[in-house]
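During the reporting period, our protein records have gained a structure token line. A sample record is set out beneath this paragraph:
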Amino acid sequence: MPTATDVLYRVTAIVAAIADCPVDEISPESRLVEDLDLDSLQVVEIAVRAEEEFGRPIDDALLAEQDVTVSHCVHVVQEANAKGVRT
């Protein structure tokens, strides 16, 4: 299972690619819609790319809430990984 730091790095890279901005401009507190100006399709794309990157299903509805941060995305990925390990 990937470490928390590894997950943060990989999720931040995914978000940066979709937001079309440098990785160093994104922090764990960056909000997807409010700060990075992503739309709902881009948020779904984060979930799809995270599924491909980590090999676990990611519920995009968990990323579609208001004020979702990069840190929240990391938490969702970690939960998906934990569920995969338990089964």
